[in-house]
């Protein structure tokens, strides 16, 4: 039995060692590929024509492009500051100025669009003096009246007098 085991073990050892070596399959660590120490040089194409702009102009253009957005944002903030200061101090003395960034409303009636008033002022304060106080009409002296106007005035006075006389 010992001989049988020894033969079996030797066959097993031969199979486990020979088959991977014949197929090229080993358990060794594979080496990493060697990378070049310097990056490959890029060949850049040189333009032989002379530049139409000077170096200062090129720098100026690039700085203008960078600062353009900052300037526009600062301008919008500066437009809003005086409006807020006017509203805080004396809104009824300074009307709200027109801002360039307004949108057009098509569905609004024309009279509603034309009427521009500060939000802090009520509708009653927007009336003209003639709309609040209705006088007796055109008050003229007797010398200024024509003959027809004098007759009309005299007839109205008689009519009023008769009404008052009829009530009492």
From TrEMBL:
Keywords (A to Z) from UniProt: Nucleus, Ribonucleoprotein, Ribosome biogenesis, rRNA processing
GO biological process entries: rRNA processing
Domain of life: Eukaryota
Regions of compositional bias (Basic residues) in chain numbering: 150-168
InterPro entries attached to this UniProt entry: Mpp10
GO cellular component, one term: sno(s)RNA-containing ribonucleoprotein complex
Cellular location(s): Nucleus, Nucleolus
UniProt biased composition (Basic and acidic residues): 39-55
Residue ranges of the region described as Disordered: 30-61, 143-168
Keyword Ribonucleoprotein listed: yes
One Pfam family of this chain: Mpp10
Residue ranges that the Swiss-Prot or TrEMBL entry lists as coiled coil: none
Family designation: Belongs to the MPP10 family.
Name of the protein described by the UniProt record: Uncharacterized protein
């Amino acid at each position: 039995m010992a001989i049988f085991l020894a033969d079996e073990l030797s066959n097993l050892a031969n199979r486990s060692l020979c088959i991977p070596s014949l197929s090229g399959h080993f358990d060794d660590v594979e080496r990493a590929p060697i990378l070049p120490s310097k990056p490959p040089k890029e060949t850049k194409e040189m333009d032989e024509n002379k530049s139409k702009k000077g170096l200062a102009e090129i720098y100026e253009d690039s700085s203008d492009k960078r600062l353009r957005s900052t300037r526009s944002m600062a301008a919008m903030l500066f437009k809003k500051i005086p409006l807020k200061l006017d509203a805080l101090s004396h809104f009824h003395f300074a009307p709200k100025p027109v801002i360039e960034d307004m949108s057009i409303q098509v569905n609004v009636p024309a009279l509603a669009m034309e009427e521009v008033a500060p939000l802090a002022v009520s509708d009653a304060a927007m009336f003209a003096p003639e709309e609040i106080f209705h006088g007796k009409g055109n008050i003229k002296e007797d010398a200024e009246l024509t003959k027809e106007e004098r007759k009309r005035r005299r007839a109205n006075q008689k009519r009023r007098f008769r009404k008052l006389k009829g009530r009492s």
